[in-house]
Amino acid sequence: MGRRVLGVMLTVFAVAASVVSSVFVFSTQGYLPETKSFDPTWWSILGFFTGIAAAVMLCWRHKWPELVLAIALVPPLLFRSDALAALIALAALAAHRRDRLLWTGSVLVYLATAWALFGDANRHADVTIAGQIVGKQISAVQIMGTLTVAVVMTAVPLTVGVVRGMQDTLAIREAKEEELRAEMTRRAERTRIAREMHDVLGHRLSLLSLQAGALEVSQGPTTSEAAKTVRTTARQSLDDLRQVIGVLRDGQGFGEDGAGGHHPEPPQPTLADIPELVANSRRSGLGVNVTILLDDAGGAPALLGTTAYRIVQESLTNVLKHAPGAAAEVAVRGGPGNGLTVEVVNPLPATAVVGKAPGAGTGLTGIGERVTLVGGNVSAGPTEERTFAVRAWLPWGHH
Questions:
Q1: Beta bridge partners of 390
Q2: pLDDT value at residue 339
Q3: Using CA atoms, how far apart are residues 215 and 217, in angstroms rounded to an integer?
Q4: Is 233 helix (H, G, I), strand (E, B) or coil?
Q5: In the prediction, which pLDDT does 379 show?
Q6: Chain centre distance of CA 52
Q7: Pick from 297, 281, 301: which is nearest to 289 by CA?
Q8: Alpha-carbon distance 31 to 123, whole Å?
Q9: What is the dihedral of CA 174, 180, 185, 188, to 10 degrees?
């Protein structure tokens, strides 16, 4: 708002100054020194109205800089009127472009300014202004002075316009960079959400598949409990799926509703949640042996705990997908200063699994991204003992 008001004030000032300059030149052109009267010619009248038109056109100098400059050059070049409007229009042109047209316009403005100054310097001594500076008689000194003053008068608006144009360019570039940073932030957030949902949904749906298989062959009293577990897991998976669909549809953050309100993001898992994760896997029929040796687990950084939890979760999901019926060995060890080691090992299946599971490889990629984010390292693959091992080390600094 403040910049707009300043722009309007500058435009009013530019138009007024150009009009005053045209009136002064018009009065000096019709001045008769012998009788000290005013007797304009039709040529000077035409030049005056052309100068007024050029002054008014300055209102659109930033919208049509080339056209306004072309009109502003007519009074000084054709009628030897004032060149103030042309100088102001040159500043506007320099703010919008810096190419061959700008330099051509600068040369024309310089010639127009020098021509107008030379004409003013050789008017009667009572009405000349330029003559007070460069001399009132035609001479080499007057010509050199006129050319020098014209250089200065042309250089000032040209410099002002170029500086303003650079400022506008930088402002536009900064705005684009800010928009790009915002878009990158949104993409990073969507990637994070997608990774979270992949880990959560992949694990739950794998458990659901295992539970459904057990339910098919179950005929004892455990059938009701298995059915309850399947129903609970399916409901949780559907809730997570709705969140993912909302993110993809609206492009909003995790947990935002469609009305613009914000719901807090569900709490992220920590190291303390790993035993419950293992217990859920066991209840679903996955054999898991776990070893957890932690020093000050409650003081672990939140991101460290979440990363370790997701590594175990995704590794158990992979066991369900790629080695059904196999047991897994989970070990989580470490403490402040020593770092955290997470290891999940399972036997390789006796026969290769037919077909490729949907999303194969995505989970291990997500693990790698998580570990890299916290500054750790990870390895995953078959071993010489015919097992598949996921081993990760995560830094855990001192408090």
A1: 344, 380
A2: 92
A3: 5
A4: helix
A5: 93
A6: 45
A7: 281
A8: 9
A9: -150
| Burial class (CB within 10 angstroms; exposed 0-12, middle 13-18, buried 19+) of 185 | exposed
Give Cα separations from 291 to 252, 274, 275, 276, 334 (angstroms): 39, 11, 10, 13, 11
84-96 and 42-57 helices, crossing angle to 10°: 30
| pLDDT computed for residue 233 by the predictor | 65
Strand 328-335 with 377-382, pairing: unpaired
Reported as a single tens digit per residue, the pLDDT across 315-352 is 888 888 888 788 899 999 999 988 999 999 999 887 65
Closest CA relative to residue 198, chosen from 363, 379, 21: 363
Interior angle at CA 243, CA 249 and CA 200, nearest 5: 130
Q: Tokens in use for 221? A: 């009293």
Is the torsion defined by CA of 122, 131, 139, 81 positive or negative? negative
Nearest-angstrom CA–CA distance, 305 and 311 = 10
Looking up tokens 């600068």 gives 106
Among candidate residues 27, 51, 56, 54, the one with its CA nearest the CA of residue 39:
27
Please identify which residue in the block is written with the tokens 């070049």.
77
Q: Which two tokens stand for residue 101?
A: 């047209």
Q: How many CB atoms lie within 10 A of CB 279?
A: 12
pLDDT by residue (tens digit) across 346-378?
998 876 555 555 445 567 887 888 888 889 999
3-state secondary structure of 346: strand
Global pTM value:
0.51
